[in-house]
Amino acid sequence: MSATVQIDVCSSEDLPSGAVKVVVHGELTIAVFNAEGALYAIEDRCTHDDGPLAEGEFDPEECVVACPRHGAEFDIRSGSALTLPAYRPVETFPVDVEDGRIVVTVPAT
Ligand code: FES
């Protein structure tokens, strides 16, 4: 198994449903979403042309975020690109709550 690092995001109270938080880890920027109580983390970089997905429109019911640059939609659960102009998925990361803190697990660099 490859090594991983856990990144502290925020208190779970600070990320209510419909909210998104961005956390930076080295060269990796991660967007953490609360979709009606379920937490998901994706790389905050659109696979079309690096748009900041956390700044796009987020639909917590559908678990979809739209890139603010050219509108490509991604499923935040799987990272799948749902609409053009993006067609490659974004990377996803496991999210947990530990002692009331939201934690994202990423590969160690
Ligand atoms: S950068 Fe995201 S759709 Fe173009």
Task: Describe the protein's architecture and organization.
The two termini are 14 Å apart. Helix content is 0%, strand content 45%. The strands form 3 sheets. The protein has a 4-stranded antiparallel beta sheet with strand order 2-3-4-8, with no helix packed on it. It has a 3-stranded antiparallel beta sheet with strand order 1-10-9, with no helix packed on it. A 3-stranded antiparallel beta sheet has the order 5-6-7, with no helix packed on it. It has strands at 4-11, 20-25, 28-35, 38-43, 58-59, 64-66, 73-75, 92-93, 95-98, 101-107. Strand 6 and strand 7 (73-75) form a beta hairpin. It has one domain: Rieske Iron-sulfur Protein (3-layer Sandwich). It has no helices and 10 strands. By secondary structure, the protein is mostly beta strands. The site of FE2/S2 (inorganic) cluster has 11 residues, from loops.
SSE blueprint:
Layout: E1 4-11, E2 20-25, E3 28-35, E4 38-43, E5 58-59, E6 64-66, E7 73-75, E8 92-93, E9 95-98, E10 101-107
Antiparallel strand pairs: 1-10, 2-3, 3-4, 4-8, 5-6, 6-7, 9-10
The structure holds FE2/S2 (inorganic) cluster (FES).
